[in-house]
Design a protein that fits this description.
single chain; mainly alpha
């Protein structure tokens, strides 16, 4: 959601802001993307370890991790971790490219991170309760849409709040008036 806010809301709105504020606002928005996306990706990694523990514990303990990973759930869990690694790589690339002034490439890397996040959500939905019913295509599709909508909504709200706090605290009145016009 934070990446979506940056790519779909903040970047297009920058056409309304004059330099040098355009660069400052873009940089502030990009910094906040990394503030949110990197800890969120780290939290997903920790939650994934917890999920693996719970699944193996239900079979009798950690000695059954190999058995858990051989199930459909385990296959999807491994695929999610690979996808999560891709998200991390895309975020790191976006950060590195932005710090070198390669804005277009940084934005593309953020787009890759957003797409990989969608794949991650699809993999979650493929082992959810919706996948167990007849006609699971529709149930999984609805589950994916629901999770994507929730993630984008929450992430955008957090980013908007952070951006408005920054705007109120760090920006003089003239650029604020430009946005109100």
């Amino acid at each position: 959601g934070s990446v979506a806010f940056f790519l779909l809301v903040l970047l297009p709105s920058l056409t309304e802001v004059d330099e040098p504020w355009r660069k400052r606002w873009r940089d502030a928005g990009r910094k906040r993307v990394f503030w949110i996306a990197a800890p969120a990706a780290a939290a997903l990694a920790l939650v994934a370890l917890g999920e693996l523990y719970v699944q193996s514990h239900q079979l009798g303990g950690l000695r059954y991790v190999d058995d858990v990973l051989k199930t459909d759930w385990g296959t999807r869990w491994i695929q999610r971790q690979i996808t999560l690694s891709g998200i991390w790589i895309a975020l790191a690339a976006a950060y590195a490219l932005a710090s070198r002034g390669r804005e277009a490439f940084s934005n593309a890397a953020l787009g890759v991170a957003a797409a990989a996040s969608g794949i991650y959500i699809l993999l979650v939905a493929l082992v959810s309760h919706g996948d167990t019913v007849t006609g699971s295509f529709w149930a999984v599709g609805a589950d994916v849409l629901h999770i994507v909508a929730a993630a984008v909504w929450i992430g955008m709200l957090v980013q908007l709040l952070l951006f408005l706090v920054w705007l109120r605290r760090d920006v003089p009145d003239e650029p604020k008036r430009q946005l109100q016009a």
